[in-house]
Specification:
two-stranded antiparallel ribbon; about 15% strand
Length: about 280
Amino acid sequence: MTSRRDFLKSSAALACALALNDNRVWGLVRIPLGVQLYTVRQVAEKNLPETLAKIRKIGYQEVETYGGIYTYPAAQLQYMIQQAGLAVPSGHFDYDTLVQQLPYANQLGLKWVVCPMIPHSMWTLEGFHAAAKQLNEFGKRAQALGMRFAFHNHNYEFADYGGGKTGYEILVAETDPELVFFELDCYWAVQAGHDPLRMMERMGKRIRMLHLKDRKPGFPISYDMGPSSAHFVPVGKGSIDWRPILAEGERLEIEHYFVEQDDTYGHPFKSISESYKDLLKLMA
């Protein structure tokens, strides 16, 4: 039988958990929300410590890094992020220089090394086959350093590059599930005419991270990443149905959720603040 003391202790613990407003509590497992720092690049590259402090003040607990802030030595960058009360589990590194940057990623303390895209010159059937081999190599090298590797999509991968095969299908089919995982950018999948929920159901735990940004309704799909593809709005302000995506993310035990908006069309802090507030409501 539960004693009165044990009941009060467990009730107090539950109250503390529910009082946390940094993130939604699912089954008493805290799901941290993060920001891909590219979203706030205009201010981050001018004053990174101040930018990080403002991100933490909004309520975010994690950040994902990108190339524009790798001007700092890894130890200094890690220190600045930690001083702001944030964690840095993941970082983006360019395809052409990723291997050379793996030691930097390791020194930064990353769990995940992410390739954000393959070079435009490789957007061909042959190019995607070659890229799949290279992603396997990235995964092997990252694993040797105690990290994991993931690929982040845009919309160009979903074009048919011949024989009824999309570039994304090639990358999924021809990479080792033990070495190559995926960071699903929900906006870019929708912009290419795909349903992120169906992709998550199909790919399962190969998807370990999500990028969250919303899309204005009423625009045609595209595969070119040009201006005709840019219909970005904060999470909760667009047409994407987030609740089932987030519920599936819980089922798959998605490890990290990063808000990202390629262009904010206004002050970036306003955008990421709106996304944070709406995500808390969507996760309720």
